[in-house]
Each structure stands twice: as structure tokens, then as C-alpha cells.
Design a protein that fits this description.
By secondary structure, the chain is mainly beta. About 0% of the residues lie in helices and about 50% in strands. The chain contains no helices and eleven strands. The strands form two sheets. Strands 2, 4, 5, 6, 9, 10 and 11 form a seven-stranded mixed sheet that branches. A four-stranded antiparallel sheet has the order 1-3-8-7, with no helix packed on it. A hairpin with a 4-residue loop joins strand 5 (about 45-50) and strand 6 (about 55-60). The chain is globular.
């Protein structure tokens, strides 16, 4: 059983930075895609960024150029570095994992096998 626990959320002013972390336990698969998703109030959950076991990354348009996804395999921890944040980045951020896949491909929530409970990010203008 994989468990994912997010941390690092909080309130930041627009233009600032924030780093989210996701600690994974029970992750023994030799191939996977780990991703960050977010859900803003009144909106559907959407993908933000993904990274596979080999370190290949993918980003959605909203994150490209401002967010950086990374992982520390030794610590089983996933990160999301958020820079130049905007009020529209306000959302609950979730990490998730799709097991037994060599690459992330299209980041789809229906593909993910396990989810964390989320960490809230609030960006003020």
C-alpha cells in the first residue's frame, strides 16, 4: 500500500515562491509516474506536472516556465517548486502516483493509483 503525504502549503503573496513536498512510503514499484494535481474552488481537478522514475518531466501550460517538479529517490520525496505565483494558482495541491509505467505521458488523474490528501496553497494579490 502506497501512502503519500503532502506538505509545504501556505499563504504567499503574488510573485513569491513556495515549495511543496510529498513524502511517499510503500513505493516499491521499479517504474512509475508521480504527479502534482490541483483543484481550485469550484473547478475540476487538473494536472500540473509529472515526473517518471528516470527523472523525465512534463508540465501543463499553467505550470510551464514557473513550476519545477523534482524528486529525491533516496528520500522517496517529490517536490514542486512554485515561482512567480499568481492568485489563480490558489488551490488544493495533491500528489499522486501511477504505478508500473515507464513514462508519464499525458498527465491524467484517471491514470493515478494512489493520492495524498492535499496541501492548501493560497496566493494573495
Amino acid at each position: 500500500q502506497v501512502q503519500l503525504v503532502e506538505s509545504g502549503g501556505g499563504s504567499v503573496q503574488a510573485g513569491g515562491s513556495l515549495r511543496l513536498s510529498c513524502a511517499a512510503s510503500g513505493l516499491t514499484a521499479s517504474s512509475y509516474c508521480m504527479g502534482w494535481f490541483r483543484q481550485a474552488p469550484g473547478k475540476e481537478r487538473e494536472g500540473v506536472a509529472g515526473i517518471d522514475r528516470a527523472g523525465r518531466t512534463s508540465y501543463t501550460d499553467s505550470a510551464e516556465g514557473r513550476f519545477t517538479i523534482s524528486q529525491d529517490n533516496a528520500k522517496n520525496t517529490l517536490y514542486l517548486e512554485m515561482n512567480s505565483v499568481k492568485p489563480e494558482d490558489t488551490a488544493m495541491y495533491y500528489c499522486a502516483v501511477e504505478l508500473w509505467t515507464l513514462s508519464c505521458g499525458r498527465l491524467g488523474q484517471e491514470k493515478m493509483d494512489y493520492w495524498g490528501k492535499g496541501t492548501l496553497v493560497t496566493i494573495s494579490s
